[in-house]
């Protein structure tokens, strides 16, 4: 069903039906995202500080970060990163599912491989734009030296000195960086889904 159709059937589905299976889905998504970001965040901190020109090489960045903040310094921006990652995956999948339905309705057929890639790229890119404010805050937090700063303080500072558009700095490059990843991810998702459906049909045919 499309999103409007789901809304129209809410009384029939009911609150419990609407959230059925949500707890394992949330726990699974959060745990995988949390573990992934826990490994990537220290590398991201060093990368951001090098790109900002704060240090000349990785060794210098590592030593200075350890001396300034200890182990905690390598995990600056963890909250902002999680606030970016979890909504990014949710928004990307939601945009892809709805965009796919709209395009298939217009074409009156299933999407071909190139059309799937195009819709996946657009969905991934738009999800990246939507979550750009958290990416901006993450970068500012990771490149701040000397003292830890909170997300709320960073957000207030950006809004005060740069306005709302300051939260979307780098949105265009981020769109074009994420779009190819979205194309590959959703194309792979469709191939895996078709393979699983074909396997299920084969099992059903064999049992008959």
TrEMBL record:
GO cellular component: membrane
Domain of life: Eukaryota
Record Pfam families: Mito_carr
UniProt topology in membrane: Multi-pass membrane protein
Chief location category: membrane
Keywords: Membrane, Repeat, Transmembrane, Transmembrane helix, Transport
Subcellular location per the Swiss-Prot or TrEMBL entry: Membrane
SUPFAM superfamilies: Mitochondrial carrier
Ranges occupied by Solcar repeats: 20-102, 111-195
Family as reported in the entry's similarity comment: Belongs to the mitochondrial carrier (TC 2.A.29) family.
Protein name: Uncharacterized protein
Organism: Sphenostylis stenocarpa
Lineage of producing organism: Eukaryota, Viridiplantae, Streptophyta, Embryophyta, Tracheophyta
